[in-house]
Amino acid sequence: MEIDKVPALKKLTRDLKIKPRKMTWEDIVTHPYLWLLPSLILMFIVTFIPIVELFITSFSRVSLAGVRHEITGFENYVAVSSKPTFYMVLKNTLIWTVAVVGFSTILSLGIAILLNQKFIGRRLVRAALIVPWAVSLIITSAIWKWILDYNYGTLNYLLSKFNLINENIYWLASPSLSFPLMIWVGIFVTLPFTSFVILSGLQTISNDLYEAASIDGADGWKRFFFITLPLIKQPLTVSVVLNTIYVFNSFPIIWTITQGDPVNQTDTVITYLYKLAFQTNKMGEAAAVSVISFLLLLAFTIVYVSIVLRRER
Amino acid sequence: MVHPSRIQKGLTLLAAYFLVVVLLFPYVVMLVTALKSRSEVYSIPPTFFPREWTVSNFLEIWTVIPLSTYIWNTILIATGSTLLTLFCAIPAAYVLSRRQFVGKRAYMYLVLITQMFSPIVLLVGLFRVIQWLGLMDSIWGLVLVNAAFTQAFAIWLLTGYFSTIPRELEQAAWIDGCSKLKTLVKIVLPLATPGIITTVIFVFIMAWNEFVVALTIISSDVSRPLTVGIYAFFGKYDVQWQYLFATSLVATIPVIILFLAIEKYLVSGLTAGGVKD
């Protein structure tokens, strides 16, 4: 409470000759800015400076040894955008992100609804759902690479054992098979997080709403579209935005399973820029690709969040 | 969910158990492969369950790669990252949930924007900064990077948790003459324990599993973490699958135990994070 704003108190302080409180040691120690300082310093060093450095590098000439020379304007951007590979990689990234986020959101919605019901063994299902989340992406990707192996892989073995195929299939040789399979691995590892976020939303919905709706004659689908979906819009938005960022930035799955082969046909922007930077030492071009990726993500987030917010009003 | 019929209940169970099979299938494959000898892994026709069960892979991995060094590095990296994250995120989350001040919105947007970057998009810039700081090939460089990239998440989660703790409790402590710092340590932090545990485990696991930055800045065995270390089993022409999976199991079991430990906080933790101030 501000003493000055209450006339009676103001008079009282004047009469008693109480001086307004000075800034004490405690005030300084508990000042909000001081408390934000550690996280600000950390983010400044590890996020802000690299961003600035990235932008400068993207507009500079960089030697093969990685030494940054003079600013050359859009040279790196021109070099990157003149390669047909770049557009193929962009297209792959779009397919990868939309497919993984889209399918995993739909499947997770089903899983969350399943887990929101009471049944025997629910704890087991929830525990199983945690496993792909907890295991390192590198490890999960390596297991799938092994399962899909041509000669010794588990998938070919099981399919031939049940006489579903006569000859082993080269799952990972051509992009038309390997890319969808990597999308599946992407979905597989995205399911846990998404399901738990949606489940957290489902648990806030009161069962009374469903009771009331069914008395009014709403069937299962109607209850889903008119009660469940509108009420979990917030967690759904959170999971779509976060997943898009995570999936777009995903590296280990593709790096482990195909490494973008054959000839960049299964690369996404992220694995492509890693190769540019650390395998062919084109730091300038890699920086340009990074900046483009960041701008794409930023555009997506702004558009998506503003659409969702507008609908809310 | 209103009054599920018998058939609906049966379908629910069927779907649930099918899901368990799909989710665990790859990890069962990992386990059985880790229990096979190399010759059986590379045998035609292949087997699913080992003809001869062997634990020799679990014994040999300690000598074929410097596994104990890798594990120790990973523990140091994950612990260091978690401590640094908490040290920076707890005070920030606390003032964000309790105080009004100029620049609060700006700060929250800043945090949100850092969430959009992944280390890999910034890798070219990050590489430079790590070089300038003289932290190339050092696990402390990884600690710094991990802590920075988990800030957004930790602040988001903790702010949500702190908001659920009634302010009256703190005010009562202040009236009793408890200083603000002491109130935070004695009243608020103990009440926020579930939130802090959730944050700790999330950050710990993220740091435990981090791969890209470690792959880029670590070059010597002495500072290599597990995730990069197991890459040694990917040879140019063949992969030592039996070792790879045995090592992976050793690396994974602690993480799964940690995750199962917070399972019951998981849903409430994510809900609390979504609470608006």
TrEMBL record, chain A:
Family according to the record: Belongs to the binding-protein-dependent transport system permease family.
UniProt xrefs under CDD domains: TM_PBP2
Protein's UniProt name: Multiple sugar transport system permease protein
Membrane topology: Multi-pass membrane protein
Transmembrane parts of this sequence: 33-56, 94-115, 127-147, 181-202, 223-248, 286-309
Record domain ABC transmembrane type-1: where: 90-304
Keywords for the protein's UniProt record, in alphabetical order: Cell membrane, Membrane, Sugar transport, Transmembrane, Transmembrane helix, Transport
Record localization: Cell membrane
TrEMBL record, chain B:
Domain of life: Bacteria
Topology relative to the membrane: Multi-pass membrane protein
Pfam families, A to Z: BPD_transp_1
Classification via SUPFAM superfamilies: MetI-like
Transmembrane segments: 12-35, 70-95, 107-127, 139-162, 183-205, 241-262
Alphabetically ordered keywords of this record: Cell membrane, Membrane, Sugar transport, Transmembrane, Transmembrane helix, Transport
Residue ranges occupied by any ABC transmembrane type-1 domain in the UniProt entry: 71-262
Main location: membrane
Location relative to the cell: Cell membrane
Record's keyword annotation contains Lipid metabolism: no
CDD domains tied to this protein: TM_PBP2
Family: Belongs to the binding-protein-dependent transport system permease family.
Protein name: Multiple sugar transport system permease protein
Organism: Caldalkalibacillus uzonensis
